[in-house]
Amino acid sequence: MLQSFIKNTLSKSIPLRFFTHALPRVGLDIAEPLIFEQGLEGCIGVDIEDRDPNVKHRLGDLQRTSKIGLPNLNEVQIVSSCTMKYNPRINEVICRIPSLLNSHPFLPTDAVQGSLGLVHRLAEDLLKLTGMNSICMSPAAGAHGELCAMQTMAQAHTKQGNTHKKYVLIPDAAHGTNPATCTMAGFKVRVVKSTKNGKIDFEDFKKKCKDDVAGAMITNPNTCGLFENDICEIADLLHEKGAYLFMDGANMNALMGRVFVSELGVDAMHMNLHKTFSTPHGSSGPGSGPVVFSKKLTKYAPIPFISKEGDEFKTTEEDKTGNSFGRMKAYYGQIGVHARTLAYMLAMGNGLAAVSGDAVLNANYLKHKLEKTISVGYPKNKYCMHEVLFCDRFLKHTTISTLDFAKAMIDAGFHPPTIYFPLVVHGAMLMEPTESESKESLDDYCKTMINIATLAVSGKHDEEFHNTPMAAPIRRTDETRAAKFPILTYQEK
Ligand SMILES: *Cc1c(COP(=O)(O)O)cnc(C)c1O
């Protein structure tokens, strides 16, 4: 049925013109070749020890002599995930160690020394990586980490009697979770403008950084894919006013292993372990958003803590000083994600800096290859960080929108990037290739993007673009309805 659908629908429609490669990847995965059809002879993604020739086969003469016909796939083809990160196989091996898999937070601490040791070791390594003073491991996602940081900030102000500090400065390009978190933590948002270069307008920031400011939430690199050069001056200004700097660390993939955020003057930062440090995730998890703190905020941070005394790991469940605001959730955090993160960090070692280097290089490669065809939002004549922001200026003379363009990408077999975000450029398309894409796959992607863009600006296919995707089983979704009324159980047709 699928075959005839593909033949009947596609042979008459525009998607065929998008194809640039031998394998007809159409409508995302619907025409994906089977794993037996992918790969190259000799490619291997697992390590199996050679069999001891002296050991007799269990079935004696019934030994197989012909090839068993396993798929020839490399490691990345097998384990790559929606994070598009490199997810080392060792991650999954570690997570399935029975003592870790079956450990339970209700077990007495002397029965779970290994699990506590793992979380403690990861906590220490994340502190080393960021140069910060303390860490809270329990937040269950990025947004939850933001909330943890902002509640800590709120607690600091409460304890210091700063009742007049009600506002938090947030740039207009911020991720939606930032203003939401700020509001949930009891603060009010004061929006800071971006300059025409896509960065925080420092003059505007200065004007708005008054005595009533409790802190700022700054994403760095920001959502336009740019490093905020004024970050140190911003931190100084906030500190002068008795306010704190929260850095949204969701974009650590661009900085990992290269910057001690402590030196930028940051007081709190969350990390999205599930984004930056592997762990396949989708829709609603699994996630983990530990928060690192400066010395100043440490005593207000939430409980519990794991500490090491001699050879023993202990947990602190209560804050006797009364400074901590409480807890973010039950127990110590997402142990499965913690295990994968530690395994990833140990597997990469000094390679963490190479990860951020390659992620930035790949984004700039896309920018360089595409900027003559697809208009760049920011930065105009400079390098970007790990994401490159395009906009819809090149579609100005057509009736084709960013949405139409993104849907056409589905017909060509590519998952569309984030669109219409950030809001600071018109019809945004934010592309993040990550470090794990090969030059071949980036070239393939660029070729297809250029093909689609050339068809789009030709003025001859507007109607067809409005009807994309044609090859996907689901076409134009009512996204609001899908988000508000999800069908969460399998329904047989
Ligand atoms: C993903 C992201 C978040 C939120 O993280 P979740 O784990 O999805 O809650 C916050 N800020 C930025 C910049 C992000 O990219």
Strand and helix map with partners:
Elements: H1 2-10, H2 15-18, H3 75-79, H4 89-95, H5 98-101, H6 113-130, E1 134-136, H7 142-159, E2 167-171, H8 177-184, E3 188-192, H9 202-208, E4 213-219, H10 231-240, E5 244-248, E6 268-270, H11 273-276, E7 291-293, H12 295-298, E8 305-309, E9 312-316, H13 335-348, H14 352-370, E10 376-378, E11 388-390, H15 402-411, E12 418-419, E13 429-431, H16 439-457, H17 462-466, H18 479-484
Parallel strand pairs: 2-3, 2-4, 4-5, 5-6
Antiparallel strand pairs: 1-7, 6-7, 8-9, 10-11, 11-13, 12-13
Helix pairs in contact: 4-13, 6-13, 7-8, 14-16
Bound molecules: pyridoxal-5'-phosphate.
Task: Tally the beta strands.
Answer: 13
- What is the spatial order of strands in the main beta sheet? 1-7-6-5-4-2-3
Class based on secondary structure composition and strand pairing:
alpha/beta
Q: Helical segment tally?
A: 18
Pfam family, one: GcvP2_C
Domain Aminotransferase class V: 149-282
InterPro entries: Aminotrans_V_dom, GDC-P_C, GDC_P, PyrdxlP-dep_Trfase, PyrdxlP-dep_Trfase_major, PyrdxlP-dep_Trfase_small
Organism: Anaeramoeba flamelloides
Write a structural description.
Its EC number is 1.4.4.2. It comes from Anaeramoeba flamelloides. It catalyses: N(6)-[(R)-lipoyl]-L-lysyl-[glycine-cleavage complex H protein] + glycine + H(+) = N(6)-[(R)-S(8)-aminomethyldihydrolipoyl]-L-lysyl-[glycine-cleavage complex H protein] + CO2. The protein is of the alpha/beta class and 493 residues long. α7 packs parallel to α8 and α14 packs parallel to α16. The strands form three sheets. The chain has a seven-stranded mixed sheet with strand order 1-7-6-5-4-2-3, sandwiched between helices. A four-stranded antiparallel sheet has the order 10-11-13-12, with helices on one face. Helix content is 35%, strand content 11%. The protein folds into two domains: 156 residues, Aspartate Aminotransferase, domain 1; 256 residues, Type I PLP-dependent aspartate aminotransferase-like (Major domain) (Aspartate Aminotransferase, domain 2). β4, α10 and β5 form a beta-alpha-beta unit. The site of pyridoxal-5'-phosphate has 13 residues, from α7.
